[in-house]
Amino acid sequence: MAEIAAELVAVERMLWSGKATSVTAQTTEGEIGVLPGHEPLLGQLVENGVVVIRTTEGETLVAAVQGGFLSVSTAKITILADSALWAHEVDTADAEARERDASTDEERELAQSELRAVKRLQES
């Protein structure tokens, strides 16, 4: 199976680096799926989006991301997020409470992004 190097990096930490068979991300132009051999591109990630990485080991990694960029070259996919959180790190009850009790749209959207990532992980 074809593979490509990939990284998911947030301002506060490196989340993952390895070989992937595909990466899916939500950009300002819509959802994009990137496979090995994809044309080079630079995309802006949406606020409160989800990134899905399928590794060469068969794992599906899902993260909630807050803005940033997706860079695709012939040899590598790099996701540079303003912030990111693995779906398995999300406390669902806490995120639901924060969504319900949010005092700003930004707080509500952040909680919704985390819940979407959890749902995406459960679907994979």
From TrEMBL:
GO molecular function: ATP binding; proton-transporting ATP synthase activity, rotational mechanism
Gene3D superfamilies according to UniProt: F0F1 ATP synthase delta/epsilon subunit, N-terminal
Topology versus the membrane: Peripheral membrane protein
Chief location category: membrane
Tagged with keyword Cell membrane: yes
Location in the cell: Cell membrane
Keywords assigned: ATP synthesis, Cell membrane, CF(1), Hydrogen ion transport, Ion transport, Membrane, Transport
HAMAP family, per database record: ATP_synth_epsil_bac
Record function comment: Produces ATP from ADP in the presence of a proton gradient across the membrane.
Protein name according to UniProt: ATP synthase epsilon chain
Taxonomic lineage of the native organism: Bacteria, Bacillati, Actinomycetota, Actinomycetes, Mycobacteriales
Name of the encoding gene: atpC
